[in-house]
Amino acid sequence: MTVDTPDLVRLFVEDARAVSIEAAAKVLGLIFKSSAAEHPQPCPQCGGTDTFAFNTSKQKWNCRTGGAGGNDAIGMAAHCFGLDAHRRDGFLEACSIVLARPVPDHAGSSAVGTALLERIEQRQLHNRAEASAKAERQAGFRERERAKAVAIYDAAAPVGRYGRLVADYLEARGCGHIGASRWLRHASALPYWHGQDDGRPRELHRGPAMVAPFIGPDLLAIGCHITWIDLTRPPKYRPLLVDQLTGETLPTKKMRGSKKGGLIPLFGEPHAARWVGGEGIENGAAFAAWEGWRGDTFYFAAGDLGNLAGPAEVSSRFAHPTLNRLDSKGIARPVMVAGPLPKADRAREDAMWVAEHVSELVLLADGDSERVMTAAAMARARARHARPGRLIPIVWPRDGCDFAGIAAGARA
């Protein structure tokens, strides 16, 4: 009995589905950051500095610029190589990459018959069991992380009487002189965990930090955003954090708990009819200061571009007009950009929430990010959050700048 190619391909696909994020990252040549589970780096497809990350503990990957992510090695390989995993040829090529072997064809057929079919069924059962167990682990991990994030936020002091360092930081960043804030908080000595010592988390730094919540539509915290502060280090006024093993500079901001579907409130109240916000806290605060902290406005931040805009409809992907990269065969191909149309079967948690009563949603773009990809994401955000009668202007700073940088320069 000769086994047809479709059966070999089925086994090939099931084998690829069993490849872990960590194993695929090694095959793809991605950068591992010391002993940490989170590995931020430039996106192989979109570029940037730390726009892409994979997590070997959560078994997830994410690209903030491209608005893409997932929990499987095949999708990660497809994104890194600019393949369309929704097309058969792109999907199979991504499988080939993570397995480091070619897609089966008729020349590769064999006469193993029933044994091969049994192996396919066993692999499918194994993959389903692994997926179920992973989902349970991730659900438990998310709940524990959410509880830790809420505890960090609850333990911090409100900005105002006890949190002047946060106000001083925002003023130094060009965000004007703020008074008290209902939402922003200050921690005087918050630990920064990175790597491990003898299997336990290692405290790399401890210092003052701004802590902001991620909130859902019920206004309850589901996570927190942390920015460590050092007012002696302009222009960003954040500490220099260095991995002691690799010498690499680490990010001075972290998100804990859950951010999906949430947003970071900055100033004002969500019941306002006018909302203003973009990716980062400093940009939103700088724009708020520029327009005089309007009393009819709720100012917010999304945390990142992916949470602002949500995933794109696959059919709206387009080739970048100037950027190219080499595919797995060494051929230069255009970088594919996540398009301006939101995913049709969108889920509520795919992007930040916006209250239905909002009649004007002002979206703030970053001028210091890659222009084409950012413009597509901003157009996607406008399309996703559009409602009859709702105005959604997109405001851009000068090219190569962000609003906080412009404000800080003007202040200087």
Describe the structure.
This protein has 412 residues and is an alpha+beta fold. It has two domains: 5-138; 163-411, no CATH class. It has helices spanning 5-17, 21-28, 73-80, 88-99, 114-155, 164-172, 281-290, 305-309, 371-385, 403-411; strands spanning 38-43, 47-55, 60-63, 68-70, 157-158, 185-197, 200-215, 221-228, 253-257, 264-267, 274-278, 297-301, 318-326, 332-337, 360-364, 394-395. It has a five-stranded antiparallel β-sheet with strand order 5-6-7-8-9. Strands 10-12-11-15-16 form a five-stranded mixed β-sheet. Strand 1 and strand 2 form a beta hairpin. The longest helix has 42 residues, at 114-155. It is globular, with a radius of gyration of 23 Å.
Q: What is the element layout, followed by pairings?
A:
Elements: H1 5-17, H2 21-28, E1 38-43, E2 47-55, E3 60-63, E4 68-70, H3 73-80, H4 88-99, H5 114-155, E5 157-158, H6 164-172, E6 185-197, E7 200-215, E8 221-228, E9 253-257, E10 264-267, E11 274-278, H7 281-290, E12 297-301, H8 305-309, E13 318-326, E14 332-337, E15 360-364, H9 371-385, E16 394-395, H10 403-411
Parallel strand pairs: 11-12, 11-15, 15-16
Antiparallel strand pairs: 1-2, 2-3, 3-4, 5-6, 6-7, 7-8, 8-9, 10-12, 13-14
Helix pairs in contact: 1-4, 1-5, 2-3, 3-4, 7-10
